[in-house]
């Protein structure tokens, strides 16, 4: 029964519950758990409803097209499509340079994948196309397989082709393979893999990628000819090559790039500051590209000043080609992390907009959509596609509501490619490099997270720094692997070495918190409450037992062995007739130390056995006859399992051993707030026996504490002063005395004890 007293207080009156009594008083619903065979049958069962749902999930366009609001959304999608298309053209040209490919292959990435994603994608706001990090990773593979001096490996199907055509074929085959990996993961329903890429890891990785991109664009900014490098320390070799040629800088490229960067950066800041007042962001990249094309054409930068320009852009698409199987063999190891990175970035961006606009995205369907998009694009020699945050931001901020904006942007790309692509031929590559560098601001500014992470979570900070440095010096592929490894080690570290604590009661409440954190707390004498904030498994069971011993302040196994040794000594002395046993009230006598007998350790670990003694020993009283046993200052140990999500078989054995060690030295064990499924597992694994019973489990911590206080009432002030105890000692205690040479002293002591006993 509960009663509300005011709006900020409540009173609950109910019985005190153990898990057993709670189960008896509250009937559970009987649920039939499906077997593996049941799941297999259900998976392969086919009916009209499942077919319809499967079709709708595979082709999401059917779902959102039915709810499309033409009057409200169409105009916004048109404006957004045109704006995004112009940005996609420029970024496609720029990002193709990162992949060491001719510029027009970036335009293909803004067209072919977009068409497929329009039908299969579940996000309504992301802009599909080239992504700088993915383009850079593709470029590393392309330059490794086809360096400036020609291919280093003999690949069938590339004979007789120019270097540009060879690189395009490698890129297309790699894109096709990336799509196969993504499609395979989508069909196998393993979209959950992205959960292992934390925001911290992705931040460190993308920041390192931004540094790589920045350095890769310096050769265009300075107008230098720098060979392609790949593998570990490639960034060092690129910088070395740039600085050895720095005196050969083309001043026209440098000045053009600086002017473009300053103007684009300034206008982007204006767009950001006044975005609430501007109907659409100022397309400054497009404006500066048009101006740069005009100036370059008017002054003939290419011939008069040696400026490297985009050059010929074909006015038609290339015919589709089959991927090269030998390239598959050489790039399979590289393609898989690219598939993960491309999907992880696009899914993260899609999730942001899905939350903002209140709709659901499907990770597995996104994998299928990007997989088919890359397979289709790879057949037409498209660059590997993902999404870019800046381009998606343009699509969403200019009023885009659905992927109709995406298909319109693809139409803009189509028009430019087929009709007016020749106008971009005089565009200096330094302008594209400048646009790329300015768009890196968001990723580079992620470095500001490091001080924050260091203050809030140093383990996350270490993950960020290690991922960043590994990606910088080892390359993006190895850097991602290293970062993922460190992240998984961090998860293991957090679960293997959790922050255990000793709890105490917040006075006047049924709330228990770490006793180190609060002032006004109540900790009952003789009770320890130990909290384990992690699952218990094979890797942390020893740590858990060590922390438990630290919390109670003694080793129960050592005390158990001491007690068994003491009993052996008592039996030995009684057998020799050197000890006499007198039943008295609990007394404490002075005792001296004596060397302990060598005994069998296994026998000492068994429960204390009083069966052959006339009385039981009160271990809390002081023992005579040079018998020393460490005192135990607690009578109850409470284990808070509220945060324990699972226990494995290996840990069960260690836990059972630890509990028995305490039980065998007369410390009562209570486990509280344990998950019912864990209790069922304990029962099925024969965890309970004559020593460990199900009655030790309580529904809540407060239930257990009330039960303990009922069994062991706290001492009154007078009892504390007199030193008497309330925790029900055994009814008798042993009084031991030496015979033989100390016979007279023993008689005197016995007489005094008998007089005291008769008086009391």
UniProtKB/TrEMBL annotation:
<keyword id="KW-1133">Transmembrane helix</keyword>
<dbReference type="InterPro" id="IPR011547">
    <property type="entry name" value="SLC26A/SulP_dom"/>
</dbReference>
<feature type="transmembrane region" description="Helical">
    <location>
        <begin position="174"/>
        <end position="197"/>
    </location>
</feature>
<dbReference type="InterPro" id="IPR002645">
    <property type="entry name" value="STAS_dom"/>
</dbReference>
<feature type="transmembrane region" description="Helical">
    <location>
        <begin position="335"/>
        <end position="355"/>
    </location>
</feature>
<feature type="transmembrane region" description="Helical">
    <location>
        <begin position="127"/>
        <end position="146"/>
    </location>
</feature>
<feature type="transmembrane region" description="Helical">
    <location>
        <begin position="218"/>
        <end position="239"/>
    </location>
</feature>
<feature type="transmembrane region" description="Helical">
    <location>
        <begin position="280"/>
        <end position="299"/>
    </location>
</feature>
<protein>
    <submittedName>
        <fullName>Solute carrier family 26 member 3, tandem duplicate 2</fullName>
    </submittedName>
</protein>
<dbReference type="Pfam" id="PF01740">
    <property type="entry name" value="STAS"/>
</dbReference>
<feature type="transmembrane region" description="Helical">
    <location>
        <begin position="74"/>
        <end position="97"/>
    </location>
</feature>
<feature type="domain" description="STAS">
    <location>
        <begin position="517"/>
        <end position="708"/>
    </location>
</feature>
<keyword id="KW-0812">Transmembrane</keyword>
<dbReference type="GO" id="GO:0016020">
    <property type="term" value="C:membrane"/>
</dbReference>
<feature type="transmembrane region" description="Helical">
    <location>
        <begin position="251"/>
        <end position="268"/>
    </location>
</feature>
<feature type="transmembrane region" description="Helical">
    <location>
        <begin position="367"/>
        <end position="384"/>
    </location>
</feature>
<feature type="transmembrane region" description="Helical">
    <location>
        <begin position="462"/>
        <end position="493"/>
    </location>
</feature>
<keyword id="KW-0472">Membrane</keyword>
<feature type="transmembrane region" description="Helical">
    <location>
        <begin position="404"/>
        <end position="424"/>
    </location>
</feature>
<dbReference type="InterPro" id="IPR018045">
    <property type="entry name" value="S04_transporter_CS"/>
</dbReference>
<dbReference type="InterPro" id="IPR036513">
    <property type="entry name" value="STAS_dom_sf"/>
</dbReference>
<dbReference type="GO" id="GO:0008271">
    <property type="term" value="F:secondary active sulfate transmembrane transporter activity"/>
</dbReference>
<dbReference type="InterPro" id="IPR001902">
    <property type="entry name" value="SLC26A/SulP_fam"/>
</dbReference>
<dbReference type="Pfam" id="PF00916">
    <property type="entry name" value="Sulfate_transp"/>
</dbReference>
<feature type="transmembrane region" description="Helical">
    <location>
        <begin position="103"/>
        <end position="120"/>
    </location>
</feature>
């Amino acid at each position: 029964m509960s009663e509300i007293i005011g709006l900020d207080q409540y009173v609950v009156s109910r019985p005190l519950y153990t898990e057993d009594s709670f189960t008896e008083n509250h009937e559970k619903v009987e649920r039939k758990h499906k077997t593996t065979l049941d799941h297999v049958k259900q998976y392969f069962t086919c009916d009209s409803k499942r077919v319809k749902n499967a079709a709708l999930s595979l082709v999401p366009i059917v779902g959102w097209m039915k709810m499309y609001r033409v009057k409200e959304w169409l105009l916004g999608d048109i404006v957004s499509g045109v704006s995004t298309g112009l940005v996609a053209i420029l970024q496609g040209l720029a990002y193709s340079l990162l992949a060491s490919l001719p510029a027009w292959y970036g335009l293909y990435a803004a067209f072919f994948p977009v068409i497929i994603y329009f039908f299969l994608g579940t996000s309504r706001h992301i802009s599909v196309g080239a992504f700088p990090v993915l383009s850079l990773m593709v470029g590393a593979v392309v330059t490794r397989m086809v360096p400036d001096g020609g291919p280093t490996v003999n690949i069938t199907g590339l004979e007789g082709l120019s270097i540009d055509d060879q690189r395009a074929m490698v890129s297309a085959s790699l894109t096709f393979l990336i799509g196969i990996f993504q499609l395979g993961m989508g069909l196998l329903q393993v979209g959950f893999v992205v959960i292992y890429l934390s925001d911290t890891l992705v931040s460190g990785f993308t920041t390192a990628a931004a540094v790589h991109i920045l350095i890769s664009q310096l050769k265009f900014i300075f107008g230098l000819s720098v060979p392609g490098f790949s593998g570990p320390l490639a960034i060092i070799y690129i910088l070395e090559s740039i600085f050895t040629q720095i005196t050969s800088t083309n001043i026209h490229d440098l000045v053009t790039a600086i002017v473009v960067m300053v103007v684009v950066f300034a206008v982007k800041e204006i767009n950001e500051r006044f975005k609430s007042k501007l109907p659409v962001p100022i397309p400054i990249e497009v404006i500066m590209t048009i101006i740069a094309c005009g100036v370059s054409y008017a002054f003939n930068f290419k011939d008069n000043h040696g400026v490297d320009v985009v050059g010929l852009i074909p006015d038609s698409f290339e015919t589709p080609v089959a991927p090269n199987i030998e390239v598959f063999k050489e790039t399979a190891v590289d393609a898989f992390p690219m598939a993960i990175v491309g999907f992880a970035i696009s899914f993260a961006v899609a999730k942001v907009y899905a939350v903002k606009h209140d709709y659901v995205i499907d990770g597995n369907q996104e994998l299928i959509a990007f997989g088919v998009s890359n397979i289709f694009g790879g057949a037409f020699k498209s660059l590997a596609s993902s999404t870019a945050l800046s381009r998606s931001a343009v699509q969403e901020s200019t009023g885009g509501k659905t992927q109709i904006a995406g298909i319109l942007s693809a139409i803009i790309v189509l028009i430019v490619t087929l009709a007016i692509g020749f106008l971009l031929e005089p565009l200096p590559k330094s302008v594209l490099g400048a646009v790329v560098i300015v768009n890196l601001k968001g990723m580079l500014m992620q470095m500001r997270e490091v001080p924050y992470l260091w203050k809030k979570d140093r383990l996350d900070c270490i993950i960020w720094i290690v991922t960043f440095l590994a990606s910088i010096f080892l390359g993006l592929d190895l850097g991602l692997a290293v970062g993922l490894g460190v992240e998984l080690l961090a998860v293991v570290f957090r679960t293997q070495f959790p922050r255990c604590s000793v709890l105490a009661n917040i006075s006047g409440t049924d709330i228990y918190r770490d006793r180190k954190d609060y002032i006004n707390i109540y900790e009952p004498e003789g009770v320890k409450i130990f909290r384990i904030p992690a699952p218990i498994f094979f890797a942390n069971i020893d740590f858990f037992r060590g922390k438990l011993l630290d919390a109670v302040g003694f080793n129960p196994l050592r005390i158990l062995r001491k007690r068994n040794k003491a009993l052996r000594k008592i039996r030995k002395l009684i057998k020799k007739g050197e000890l006499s046993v007198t039943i008295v009230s609990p007394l404490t006598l002075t005792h001296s130390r004596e060397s302990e007998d060598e005994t069998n350790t296994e026998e000492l670990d068994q429960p204390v056995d009083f069966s052959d003694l006339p009385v039981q020993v009160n271990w809390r009283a002081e023992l005579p006859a040079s018998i020393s046993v460490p005192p135990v200052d607690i009578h109850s140990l409470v284990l808070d399992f509220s945060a324990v999500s699972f226990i494995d078989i290996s840990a069960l054995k260690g836990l059972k051993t630890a509990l028995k060690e305490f039980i065998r030295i007369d410390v009562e064990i209570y486990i509280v707030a344990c998950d019912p499924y864990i209790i069922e597992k304990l029962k099925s694994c024969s965890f309970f026996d004559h020593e460990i019973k199900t009655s030790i489990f309580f529904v809540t911590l407060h239930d257990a504490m009330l039960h303990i206080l009922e069994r062991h009432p706290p001492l009154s002030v007078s009892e504390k002063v007199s030193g008497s105890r309330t925790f029900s000692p055994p009814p008798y205690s042993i009084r031991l005395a030496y015979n033989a040479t100390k016979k007279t002293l023993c008689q005197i002591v016995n007489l005094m004890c008998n007089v005291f006993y008769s008086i009391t």
